[in-house]
Design a protein that fits this description.
Length: 746
């Protein structure tokens, strides 16, 4: 429901009219401009019973995950591309000299750097076609991207020329660089992104289906566990040389230990490698550390960890970050660790398990179901269980999804979105045939109705059909001895139920005192249902006399061992569950109107019996996701147009509250308008039996008056601002009289 503000057109007054009549003139002009009634709609609303969505079953099969199906860390190319300029005369590459190189691309879009792939220079004569020879794709690579220099360019400035290459040869016969010019082209990556975005560890994944208004549960979609492997840590132990007198690092007679780690493009980190021999510092100074490794091209930076002075091996805490991957040395020369902390205060120690992933998984998912907008993928925490998930990705359409982002959809697992516990894709409209109609409003009144819609039908979910069975056992039950009939119904997320269908037990089951009656449902709980309601007769009760015994049952059996029923509700006579979420599509609003009010019949209602369902609709489509209104809001279709400031009701009475309230400002009675509205609202808030429609109407009568007054001041302010005039001395008509100062206008 929505309450639109009154729509008002400006008075259109000129400055001369403001001078002639002041603010009252503007109020009267606003009444004249906005007072007439607005036109009612002339075209019927159209309805698609499933346009807003329809119920979708929970996924019933486990998804499968390939831990390196999206990518695996691929080393930068080490084989140089070679080029042979052919004799063909069909080429359009401009004449000149060139260099070419390639990268390897993974299934999830990760890409290596150029590495050592850039060719030697080659010369193209106009019309000839160079053929590039490439190596076979490495394991984990799905294609190659080709990069080409500018005409007569250098071997250090290449841009993307072609993509998706899977063959070992490629002909350069185009005059553009991947659909554009060299100047607007895409440079090759500077960091190898074939690493995985999901940190190293063991995980589970699950999936849901969703539409605009609801989402399934994960059902039985939870995968088996899968493990993401780690990238290699640095292999060469760092060494250090101590220098005194040039830094503030504290003296350490028995020295310092330190470790270095790799950090990837996702911010994930490897384990470290420690210096083999302690570096002593005889007095305050610094340590120059040398790295004895060549960082792989997936490494973005290094982290450096340092022990306290005279600390033990393994006592290092984070000292510095962001050290270049290509740096060969680092100087530790201050006695403050990372973020200006002392060693003991730094809680960040060297990782014992690296998080930099050598793999990116692919997920094999179900197809997008009928009525679904797509899939949502959920991922467990690192080392988590198959019962706790947070949202990883949404809007998935394909049956194979490649991991391309870090968990968990832009947040942490702890703060992530958990999957629903109930299937909310079901409809809320009771099943049956309906008619609809609508009116339009200008914010202070309502038009008469449009032409009535064609009938539309909401479908119910299927009733259960498998008969329950039962058996007596045990000696700890408190259900009275006797013969029992029982049956069950399905319940949806809105609390609506099916009938019991044909589920009643074929013949009564007899139990002795202290026995437990175990009911077996002999069905598969539908994916849209949140559970079952079990209905049970009294001991010796007749078939069909069951009342509600237990609710929310999801297991395939239920033990009846209590003498207390869940309620006195009888077996449902009608199925109130719904498959469909209807969509109402409206024509454009008539000029001067700002919103629509929608009226709908009851299920099975006849034409012309519509009651108010929703108000303030400004969009051209509206989905029926709320339950039909209760009796306190069941307002019938209006029989007269109340969008004018003055109109006649069905009895011929003239209604002019809007005009009267506006003119109260001129008469000095505006306080009475406010007081009357405030008193009526207070009564409604106290619980007086004023209808919702009635209180809205009273508020609008006052609202339009204050809105018109506000518009009058807006119009006046605009005119005054645009016509400042001039202050100058002026004389009266009598000669010799003293001059006065006045404002005048041309």
């Amino acid at each position: 429901m929505s309450y639109p503000n009154p729509y008002l057109s400006p008075s259109g007054a000129t400055f001369a009219q403001l001078q002639a009549g002041g603010l009252s003139n503007l109020l009267e002009r606003l009444i004249t401009v906005n007072g007439p009634a607005e036109s009612p709609p002339t075209t019927a609303v159209t309805i698609s019973a499933t346009g807003g969505g329809q119920s979708i079953n929970n996924p019933s099969s486990a998804i499968t995950v390939t831990n390196n199906g999206g990518s695996r860390t691929i080393a930068k190319p080490s084989t140089q591309a070679t080029v042979a300029v052919g004799a063909a005369t069909t080429g359009s590459l401009p004449a000149g000299t060139y260099y070419v190189g390639y990268t390897v691309v993974t299934a999830n879009g990760g890409e290596t750097t150029l590495g050592s792939s850039v060719s030697t220079v080659f010369t193209v004569t106009a019309g000839l076609t160079p053929v590039v020879t490439l190596p076979a794709l490495p394991t984990g690579g799905v294609s190659m991207n080709l990069y080409l220099s500018n005409t007569n360019g250098s071997n250090t400035a290449l841009v993307k020329y072609a993509t998706g290459i899977t063959n070992t040869t490629f002909t350069l016969n185009s005059a553009n660089w991947n659909g554009t010019t060299f100047a607007n082209g895409i440079s090759p990556p500077t960091v190898n992104s074939t690493i995985g975005p999901i940190p190293v560890g063991t995980y589970y994944a699950a999936v849901t289906q969703y539409h605009l208004h609801g989402e399934t549960t994960i059902g039985s979609s939870a995968s088996t566990s899968f493990t993401i492997a780690a990238n290699s840590a640095p292999s060469g132990a760092p060494t250090g040389v101590a220098t005194t007198g040039t830094g503030t690092l504290a003296a350490a007679a028995t020295g310092y230990f330190y470790q270095v780690t790799y950090v990837d493009a996702w911010g994930n980190e490897t384990t470290g490698v420690e210096n083999a021999s302690v570096t002593a510092l005889s007095a305050t100074g610094e340590i120059t550390v040398t790295f004895h490794d060549t960082a792989p091209d997936w490494v973005v930076t290094r982290n450096f960890y340092l022990s306290p002075a005279n600390g033990a091996s393994g006592s290092e805490t984070l000292y510095a970050t962001g050290i270049s991957a290509t740096a060969t040395t680092y100087v530790a020369n201050v006695n403050l660790w990372f973020n200006n902390t002392i060693p003991q205060a730094s809680a960040r120690v060297v990782p014992t398990t690296g998080t930099s992933a050598a793999q990116a998984p692919s997920f094999s998912l179900p197809s997008v179901a009928t009525g679904s907008q797509g899939l949502r993928l959920y991922l467990s925490n690192t080392g988590g269980t198959n019962t706790a998930f947070a949202l990883y990705a949404t809007g998935i359409q394909a049956t194979t999804y490649y991991a391309t982002t870090a968990p968990w959809n832009g947040t942490t697992f702890a703060n992530g979105t958990v999957p629903p516990t109930k299937n909310t894709t079901v409809g809320i409209f009771p099943p049956g045939a309906y008619y609809a109609n609508f009116t339009e409003t200008n914010g202070y009144g309502e038009t008469t109705a449009s032409t009535e819609s064609a009938s539309f039908t909401i479908t119910s979910q299927s009733n259960p059909s498998n008969a329950a069975t039962g058996a007596a056992s045990g000696s700890s039950g408190s259900l009275p001895a006797g013969a029992y009939f029982f049956s069950y119904a399905y319940v949806d997320a809105n609390g609506n139920t099916t009938t019991v269908g044909t589920t009643e037990v074929a013949s009564a089951v007899t139990i002795a005192a202290t026995n437990t009656l175990t009911v077996t449902f002999n069905d598969t709980l539908p994916g849209w249902a949140t559970g079952r309601n079990l209905y049970l007769t009294a001991a010796g009760g007749a078939s069909g006399s069951e009342t509600l015994y237990a609710t929310g049952i999801t297991a395939s059996t239920y033990a009846c061992n209590s003498a207390t029923w869940a309620g006195t509700t009888s077996i449902p006579a009608t199925n109130t569950t719904s498959v469909d979420v209807p969509r109402f599509t409206f024509p454009a609003l008539q000029t001067g109107n700002v919103a629509r009010n929608l009226y709908v019949t009851a299920a099975g209602g006849s034409t012309g019996t519509e009651v108010l369902y929703a108000t303030g609709i400004t969009t051209t489509t509206f989905d029926g996701t709320i339950a039909p209104p209760s009796n306190s809001f069941a307002v019938p279709l209006p029989t007269f147009n109340s969008t004018a400031f003055t109109y006649k009701d069905p009895n011929g009475n003239v209604v002019c509250f809007a005009e009267s309230n506006i003119r109260a400002a001129e008469r000095g009675n505006l306080q009475t308008v406010y007081s009357a509205a405030a008193i009526t609202l207070d009564r409604w808030l106290r619980g007086d039996p004023i209808s919702s429609h009635g209180i809205i109407e009273k508020l609008r009568h006052a609202h339009v008056a204050f809105a018109v007054i506000a518009q009058a001041f807006s119009d006046a302010g605009t005119l005054v601002d645009a016509n400042p005039g001039t202050i100058r001395p002026a004389t009266s008509g009598n000669a010799g009289t003293a001059s006065t100062v006045r404002r005048s206008w041309p």
